[in-house]
Amino acid sequence: MKTLDLIGSAIGNTFRSKTRTILTILAIFVGAFTLTITNGLGTGINRYIDDTVAAIGADDVMTVTKVADNASDDADGPREYDPDAISGGPVAGPPGSTAVVAPIGTTQLDELAAIEGVERVQPTKTIDADYITSDDGMKYEIGVGGFVNGMQLQLAAGEQPDAAASESQVVIPDSYVDALGFDDADAAIGETVTLAVTDSEGVQHELEATVVGVAEASLGTTSSAVPNDAFGDALFDAQSTGLDASERDAFSEATVWFDADSTEEEITALQDRLADAGYDSTTVTEQLGTFKAVIDGIVLVLNAFAIIALLAASFGIVNTLLMSVQERTREIGLMKAMGMGSGKVFGLFSLEAVFIGFLGSAIGAGLGMLVGTAVSSALGGALLADLPGLTLIAFDPVSIAVIILVVMGVAFLAGTLPAARAARQDPVESLRYE
Amino acid sequence: MTAPILSAKDVHKSYGRGPNRFDALKGVSLDIHEGESVAIIGKSGSGKSTLMHVLALLDQPTEGSIELEGADTRGLRGAKLNRTRNKTFGFVFQQFFLTPNASVIENVVLPLKIAGVGRGERKRRGLAALEQLELDDKARNKAVNLSGGQKQRSVIARALVNNPRVIFADEPTGNLDTATGAVVEDILFDLNREQGITLIVVTHDEELAARCDRRIYIRDGVIVDEEVAA
User: Fold this and answer.
1) What are the φ/ψ torsions at residue B217 (nearest 5 degrees)?
2) 3-state secondary structure of B205
3) Mean pLDDT across B168-192
4) Sheet (strand B63-68) strand order
5) Contact, A221 vs A173, CB < 8 A?
6) What are phi and psi of B27, to 5 degrees?
7) Do A341 and B116 touch (CB under 8 A)?
8) I want to staple B159 with a disulfide (CB 3.0 to 4.6 A). Which of A346, A407, B90, B96 is the partner?
9) Does domain B6-228 bear CATH number 2.60.40.10?
10) What is the pLDDT of residue A96?
């Protein structure tokens, strides 16, 4: 029998017992549908994270902190006071937990710069702005984010701040456009805004900058103004007025640049060298890695449920085909008597299983994509409107194809038992069967 | 004289082993020449069906051998055996064994499909076989909607479609009324006479057997009598 005729016969046989076939297809459909949706969820969220990566930081930098001498307590008791320690950023744990880090001063910066693999090092200047205002005079609170060269903010209008420019530039968040009295994002470009900082002596300084861009709210930069290097330095200097050099140059963290072409091993080696010198380091990938790992974990659990549904459905295939083999005993016997080989009989039944699997998964994936897209755009307009650029459920043609192929594979495996039974049939016995 | 098309040499066939052993054939030898019509006659359980299965190479003898045109068939295995059966034999069964929901033409061309004949050629030969049996107007009908006689004629068309040299007919008229049965018998004997197809009929119907060139009586797994038509 020719392969094409074999496939044709298998497809034809699938529809011989319509009700039974449709019920089996429905069972597979449920599994494939769930798998498509959960997979789409993972794809959508991870894609959004990937897009956001560039906004959080360039991928050739890492954040470095100096490990405080008393940071790791062996004992359970309270931590010894260290007058030099700085409480760094929040860490995992109950709200309010902070890591205690040692300050990074000029000496430490030189030390870091000397480490092999470090191309450049820059202290992270924390700026605490009081307010932002424009010509119309209303003052609004605002955070100030750091801008690292290579970062790509997700902009609604304008362009990225120019790190090399000597004039003061700033990118403001989309949500401030209205408040500051601009008609829309495009109208804000080129306008002047004023940011105020207070120094250690309580004197408030006002500094002006030109708006070069308007950032969309994203996971990376929610509602911070992002200055370019020149403006950032100016704000920091104003804020540090009255501090002596040693107080001023005590940063909680620094940014280290490394070769953008580094392999993962090279980055790990660099992190090891930093650790030997007493520094903790986190790359952007690592920061996001935890985030992605959580999402992947959730998607994996959801996928596991879908796969359980598929397993249940595969028993449906076994059952359907066993009944089919039973019903067609004589036909199988006749075909064998007429010279059809056992291999072809096996092929006929397993192809039928694969076809049932294909129908179930194709319909499931197709409908899953339709429903997913509909749900995603409905949520995007309402519940998730604050996260522009997020497609909650996105579909990647490769993973859809993989789902269909996997389901067909599962169907094939389910079909092997009945197909083998058909192939083993003795034509004489089958023809005698009443 | 040329070698017989089928020849059984001291064929034994037994099922089971030990105390459950059942000997269906206990040393059967016979020669069937090309163009002959032979009736194998016996009661149920006599071993006549087993003999047909062994002769049609559907089953292997426990002892002894079957020769096809003088060549021992014990060496035939797998694909080669399947091809030989497909090209040499046609089968007509009492219970028809038609796929009920497939069309008549689809049922008829099944041996060609198995042989790997192309779609166009299949259709042409299938229609030719149906025409020969005056069933070409029923080609598109579902097999389940045919009358008994039409079903058996479709089965004969299916047996004929691959131009076999031997047709095995197992109680071909067993499920038909006398009149229809007679028509089917006429068709089979016409094929035997006009196209020279060897006809091997397994039956317990004496009247049908009487029309064959040779009658072989079998009882308890041995040939008890052989009659040649005058």
Assistant:
1) -95, 130
2) coil
3) 86
4) B22-32, B6-15, B63-68, B71-72
5) yes
6) 90, 70
7) no
8) B90
9) no
10) 46
Q: Which of B94, B97, B98, B117 to mutate to test the interface with A (most CBs of A within 10 A)?
A: B97
- CB-CB neighbours of A89 under 10 Å: 13
- Inter-chain CB proximity A16 and B93 less than 8 Å: no
| Angle made by CA atoms A88, A92, A93, in degrees to the nearest 5 | 110
Q: Which residues of B touch A331 (CB under 8 A)?
A: 97, 99
CA dihedral B99, B101, B103, B107 (to 10 degrees): -10
Cβ-proximal residues to A180 (8 Å cutoff; 6+ apart), any chain? A132, A133, A134, A136, A138, A140, A172, A188, A193
Residue located via tokens 């006002």: A206
For the stretch A407-416, pLDDT in tens is: 999 999 999 9
pLDDT higher than 60, residue A33:
yes
At residue A295, does pLDDT exceed 70?
yes
Question: How sure is the predictor about A92, in pLDDT bands with cuts at 50, 70 and 90?
Answer: very low
Cα separations in angstroms, A10 against A343, A365, B19: 14, 23, 43
Place of tokens 């059952």: A319
Contact partners, residue A172, CB within 8 Å, separation at least 6? A132, A180, A188, A193, A211, A213, A214, A215, A225
Burial class (CB in 10 A: 0-12, 13-18, 19+), B129: buried
Please provide residue A167's backbone torsions phi and psi, each rounded to the nearest 5 degrees.
-80, 160
Q: What integer pLDDT is reported at residue A347 of this predicted model?
A: 93
**A316 to each of A22, A31, A311, A418, B223, how far by Cα in Å?**
11, 12, 9, 12, 51
The pLDDT of residue A420 is 93
Residue A54 has what pLDDT?
60
Q: What is the pLDDT of residues A94-152, one digit of tens each?
A: 444 455 567 777 778 888 888 888 888 888 777 888 888 887 778 888 888 776 666 67
H or E element, residue B226 = strand B222-228
Domains in chain B: boundaries: 6-228
Q: What is the pLDDT of residue A367?
A: 94
Given a cut of 80, whether residue B136 has pLDDT beyond it is yes
CA angle centred on B49, ends B45 and B50, rounded to 5°: 90
Interface of A with B in 317-336 (CB under 8 A): 330-331, 333-335
Can you tell me the distance from the alpha carbon of A232 to that of A255, in angstroms, rounded to the nearest whole number?
15
**Residue A199: how many CA atoms within 13 Å on its side-chain side?**
19
Average pLDDT over residues A198-206: 84
Q: Mind telling me how many Å the CA of A1 is from chain B's nearest CA?
A: 4
Place of tokens 């992947």: A296
- Report the distance separating Cα B44 and Cα B28, nearest Å: 17
Please, which pLDDT band fits residue A93 given cuts at 50, 70 and 90?
very low
| pLDDT value, residue A404 | 92
Chain A residues with CB inside 8 Å of B91's CB?
A: 334, 337-338
Largest CA distance in chain B: 55
% of residues, chain A, pLDDT over 70 = 85
